[in-house]
Amino acid sequence: MKGARTANEASMREAVLEQTREYARARFAPAPFKPGETYIPASGKVFDQREVASLVDAALDFWLTAGRFAEQFETRLARSLGLPHALLANSGSSANLLAVSALTSPALGGRALKPGDEVLTIAATFPTVVNPILQNNLVPVFADISLPTYNVDVEDLRRGLSPKTRAIFIPHTLGNPFDLRAVKALADERDLWLIEDCCDALGARYDGKPVSTFGDLGTFSFYPAHQITTGEGGALVTANARLKKAAESFRDWGRDCWCAPGSDNTCGKRFDWKLGDLPHGYDHKYVYSHAGYNLKATDLQAAVGVVQLDRLEGFVAARSRNFDALRAGLRAFEDRLVLPEATPGSKPSWFGLPLSLREGAGVRREELVSFLEAAKIGTRPLFAGDITKQPYFRGVSYRRTGALENTGRALRDAFWIGVYPGITEDMVVYVLDRFAAFFRSR
Fold first, then answer.
1. Please, which residues have CB within 8 angstroms of residue 77's CB and are 6 or more apart in sequence?
2. H or E element: which one contains 50?
3. How does DSSP assign 175-235, residue by residue?
């Protein structure tokens, strides 16, 4: 990166940034809410002139890969979680791929996952929880979920154990932590790796500790739908230095070298290694210890993220307020709806408010969500519902612990609505009014 700026460059830069802030205040000023006309999405990004100016600040560097903002973001994210290592990636899906791939590293010796090993997970989830298991030639074993937390049923998880079980990889569904005490105890009892998918759960806590700090690895997504955004983006976190090194290698083409972009000879022996069957002294920057990828993020993404991190606490509080207000209003319809509950011992960072129609509710989910969508209220199913029913799963090798009855109910009856910080009190009132109108008409 170019050296220190001259006084004139610094002055011009600040002028550009001030004009950027002024433009952003005008361009992105919120429009008034008009019931029945303004669409209320299930999720969305919340930002202002600060994020836009930070993005432009990074663009003015024209450092197009990871740089000063990425380093700052990784440091601050790790510190906020009380962990030593955070790796920024280009998506939460990539972070999940890195987490599972890291567990296959030969550097782990006898604990490395091998093709055919089994990984316990759930079917009522997003595909990129399951896909890295398949992509690493491992076998997913699906446990059921519990209602109304929508998280893994720990007893059913235990029923999925076999001599081939080597890891557990499950999400904190919609920002509601799963029973970490019980799952961690199971992992410790059987010497299993534990990956926490926290992609929907940044800011959530269990027993007073942040999610992602209980397992061997944790992952996050910063897609615009999530608690903070970098546009596209995600992160992997860990307290295990060996796992961090393996994940970093998989992220950065599989290389053995750990120099940052633009740096050389950090190890002090760039031309003095003897690795694999390469000749002694082969350039360490071009030595590869894993079959890796390029899953790095850019400084432009990280520049947005460092500002969003400053706002995380407020964002989580706003999500909780919206969740509480909607849930309180929906109690009037508990004879028709199963309302969500937080996992005991947890403080969720709600990604959305999940609902299921009760048995005998007298209406189908499709009727209700069609009504809400026509009223400009966004809805979403519980991700893949039951991923084993998805078209691409035909011919895939997997096991189920049993009938997965609650997963089947979620596939048929569950959906969720938004609680993100862009939802205002007026919007909450309108959403509750539309639910009332629907159930009055039936």
1. 86, 220, 235, 237, 309
2. helix 49-61
3. G----HHHHHHHHHHHT-EEEEE-TT-TT-EETTEETTSSSSEEEEE-STTSSS--SS-EE
Chain position carrying tokens 């004139």: 8
Instruction: Please pick, among 226, 280, 284, 290, the residue that the annotation labels catalytic.
Output: 226
- Residue 62: the pLDDT is 95
Phi, psi dihedrals of residue 177, rounded to the nearest 5°: -60, 140
- The whole-angstrom separation of Cα 124 and Cα 383 is 7
CA atoms within 13 A on the CB side of 8: 0
* Integer CA distances (angstroms), 166 to 75, 93, 100, 111, 188, in order: 31, 21, 11, 8, 11
Give, rounded to a whole angstrom, the gap between the first and last alpha carbons of the chain: 65
For the chain, list residues with pLDDT below 70: 1-3, 261
pTM for the predicted model, two decimal places: 0.95
Residue 280: active-site member: no
Cβ-contact 235, 345 below 8 angstroms: no
For residue 267, what pLDDT is reported?
A: 82
130-135 contacts: CB < 8 A, separation 24 or more? 130/387, 131/93, 131/96, 131/97, 132/96, 132/97, 132/99, 132/100, 132/101, 132/169, 133/100, 133/169, 134/396, 135/97, 135/100
Instruction: Tell me the C-alpha distance between 392 and 387, whole Å.
Output: 9
Model pLDDT, residue 442? 87
Question: What is the 8-class DSSP label of residue 124?
Answer: S
Nearest to 147 by CA among 430, 377, 407, 398: 407
- Cβ pair 109, 261 in contact under 8 A: no
DSSP state at residue 112: S
Place of tokens 């993220």: 305
Burial of 26 (0-12, 13-18, 19+ CB in 10 A): exposed
Residue with tokens 């009037």: 332
- Measured over the CA atoms of residue 336, residue 344, residue 202 and residue 222, the dihedral's sign is negative
Residue pair 253/293 in contact (Cβ under 8 Å)? The answer is yes
pLDDT value, residue 3? 66
At 2 the pLDDT is: 62
